[in-house]
Design goal:
mainly alpha
Length: about 160
């Protein structure tokens, strides 16, 4: 009889071990699938953040270029009115509207340093228009250059 028990025990162990192995493999497969889903979710979140960062970078760059162009055009016009036409420069409302709209974009999308520099540039060119002195012109030029440096720094460009 002991041989029959050993035989029965052998058959039982022989049946249990493959079943346990199958359960273990199924558990490992489920864990791997969960890790893959988590990894895919993290990659998707990272990709979405990269896309947001890219859009913000583009908006910042465009707003900096637009503001730089408008403020430079305005200062050049003031200088031309004073030095070529011999008059006292007064801002044209259409030009000021474009400049203020460009500054609003910098305020919305730009860094604090760029926003502050943009505001100082507008104050400086308005001061030049009111005073038309060489010192006021140089101050306006410096303010515009400071804005340009702030924008390039924000965008990662080298001076």
């Amino acid at each position: 009889m002991p041989e029959a028990i050993w035989a029965l025990l052998g058959v039982g162990v022989g049946a249990v071990i493959p079943a346990l192995t199958t359960l273990y493999q199924a558990r490992k497969t489920a864990e791997q699938a969960e890790q893959d889903r988590n990894s895919a979710s993290l990659h998707a979140a990272h990709d979405r953040q990269d896309a947001r960062d890219s859009r913000l970078f583009d908006l910042r760059r465009e707003s900096y270029v637009e503001f730089q162009s408008e403020v430079r055009r305005m200062l050049d016009w003031f200088w031309a009115v004073e030095n070529i036409l011999g008059g006292s420069p007064e801002p044209r409302m259409d030009d000021m509207d474009r400049l203020i709209a460009a500054e609003a974009k910098v305020q919305l999308f730009g860094t604090e340093a760029a926003s502050t520099a943009a505001r100082k540039s507008i104050v400086a060119i308005n001061t030049y228009a009111a005073r038309t002195t060489h010192e006021a012109f140089v101050a306006a030029e410096d303010a515009i250059r400071t804005f340009g440096r702030a924008g390039r720094t924000d965008l990662g460009a080298r001076d």
